[in-house]
Amino acid sequence: MCPVSSSRLLLAITIIASVVLGFLGVLYLLVAGLKQMYFWVGVILIGVALVLVTVVYKSLVKPPPITVYWSPSGEVKLEELKCPSCGAPLKIENPSISRVVCQYCGRAVEIVEEPKW
Description:
Blueprint: H1 6-30, H2 36-60, E1 99-101, E2 108-110
Antiparallel strand pairs: 1-2
Helix pairs in contact: 1-2
């Protein structure tokens, strides 16, 4: 017997509950000519069933993962960045930042990658 994860079991129970509630809601709406209360019970049951179906749908639909590959066109060389004011080496701890402050003189240096043609 293969093990079933708790999330799949909860998903199956939610689907079954939404089908049963929707079916009961339709039955109550069919009998709604007898009493007005049956109409509102049917509407509420169908509403709960639709909410459950929406929750199940949102849990099943996941966006595909995005993978980005980078391949440089030429040889990659490590280049040391220096402060234009005092000449000290600049430490770049996060490659996504565009501005670095020199730890020696305090000058803010903007990092701009220019094409080499």
